[in-house]
Sequence to fold (200 residues):
Amino acid sequence: MREGRFRNRKEAGRLLAEALLEYGGRTDTVVLGLPRGGVVVGAEIAKILHLPLDVFTVRKLGVPGQKELAMGAIATGGAMVLNPSVIEYLGIDERTIAQVAERERRELERREALFRKGLPPLAIGGKVAIFVDDGIATGATMRAAVAAARKLGPRAVIAAAPSRPLGGRGDDRACRRVLRAADAGILFRRRTVVRGVFSG
Fold:
């Protein structure tokens, strides 16, 4: 592949689909797009590979007064993942966690209804779940999705994104954390594959 930026998310999805061809048409594989941009990319992958597509919504549980600092996340299917080190360090009690989680759960449900239009979520237990986003910045969204998905019992989780940050040691660390969180991963630096997907 030549270097260069993707023209749009559909083109990025087509290139990701090429790298995921071994999963095409498999009955044990599903594609899950992370709203909003990941849904567009995931839809293109699902169309080309003839795989079912769903939305996997993630909501960060922000620390009260420091909303950008995550004490955990909730996701599609009711899974909740907490960050014990943040909770213990700040002395956050269970009541506060429950209040924040309930507020974010309502927002998650609202967004799911908007994106899924009343259709039930796809079951991913025992399946290969391909999680798709439209890029990796800090990697927090993808890692939260992967961690939450583990509670739903997939056979394997693949993290896929058509772009990644183009420089800086911190950016590289974010991508490595995403790749470590998943069973397999495929990320692009522009059009160059950074890491291929494991067979499974």
